[in-house]
């Protein structure tokens, strides 16, 4: 687990002036990674690091004298068209490059003259998927979300017997993961309407979002090799925002007996920037369970996980309808919660995922599941906010929603803030619902 070090020093500033504002997502204490190219260009994609409102082009920067030894090898890997090779190098290489970047981008750095020529405004770039995502697993790690959803279908027993014993998950669809800024057609599928004698096929009528985080795997484990909870976070490169869109009516008809399928696989949205686990070190928090809940089995428990396994990442969800957009109204915030409320930690999810010998690969994506908190205003989906569609939300412009309509955009934002610690932001994850294709 990464520790607080000189790269987290709250007094550090950068010669990139835009990184020094209190509201910047990307101060010098963050330094997240993405893959980018010039907007509208035919350039090859390459790795970049966010600093203020700029992108440091790693392909251009790798010749700088600031990068020697392991940091030089690491920046060479990170400058490629995907981050997989860099992710697979492991924590020592990740930290070496982070330290070298931090020192080179600090105020007074002798590398300013050279590296200033390697900066490109974020407004002038477009992003690609940060890596080849070989596999995607989605967990169900919020007990508040699981309880709220279970209550709609099983009021007398919202949680199934296994929930508090294992991090429940399912194998998702990697091919339909898309980057922030896209639009997608409303999914079509088979549903069974209330009181109908047989199912029908048509556009989804109960389209929903899910506020999640995505965890990118860095170092691999061999087939048959279990990852101990003590080592689990060494295998996690970083986190992004994730919206795991869900067709609730399609899902309701199909999910028994094998779980999610077409109600999930039509699209998932991620943010372009991957915030490293090292950048998040100051925002660690204790992890605990209520005393009357089952305590994690030994392979899911450690002193370190109990002391600092949780992370206080604030997650916000906003809705922008087509009418709001056309009339110049700001998006409305639907919810705000924190990853610290998760019933399972990153380390527990990785340890459980591999307890059977499953081999994870660099670039694999693990979703946390919908991150709802204890309050209704912290619910991470419309299914919860509208009590299954029975309590519509009403907005100041007179519009109402139970589920999403065509033209609606969902905007996810994430950040870490605390007195005496530098703000760490994730940027946005945005996507817009388009009409179903004929």
Describe the protein in words:
There is one protein chain. This protein is α+β, with helices and mostly antiparallel strands. The chain has helices at residues 58-61, 69-78, 84-88, 91-105, 112-115, 143-153, 248-254, 303-308, 322-327, 346-354, 382-385; strands at residues 33-38, 46-51, 54-57, 119-121, 125-128, 136-139, 169-171, 177-179, 182-185, 188-191, 200-203, 207-208, 211-217, 236-243, 246-247, 268-270, 275-276, 284-285, 310-311, 314-320, 332-338, 365-367, 393-394, 400-401, 409-418, 421-434. The strands form 7 sheets. Strands 6, 7, 8, 13, 14, 16, 17 and 22 form an 8-stranded mixed sheet that branches. A 5-stranded antiparallel sheet has the order 4-3-2-1-5. A 5-stranded mixed sheet has the order 9-26-25-20-21. It is globular, with a radius of gyration of 22 Å. The chain starts with 32 loop residues before the first strand and ends with a strand.
Offer a concise description of the structure:
This protein has helices spanning 58-61, 69-78, 84-88, 91-105, 112-115, 143-153, 248-254, 303-308, 322-327, 346-354, 382-385; strands spanning 33-38, 46-51, 54-57, 119-121, 125-128, 136-139, 169-171, 177-179, 182-185, 188-191, 200-203, 207-208, 211-217, 236-243, 246-247, 268-270, 275-276, 284-285, 310-311, 314-320, 332-338, 365-367, 393-394, 400-401, 409-418, 421-434. The protein is an alpha+beta fold.
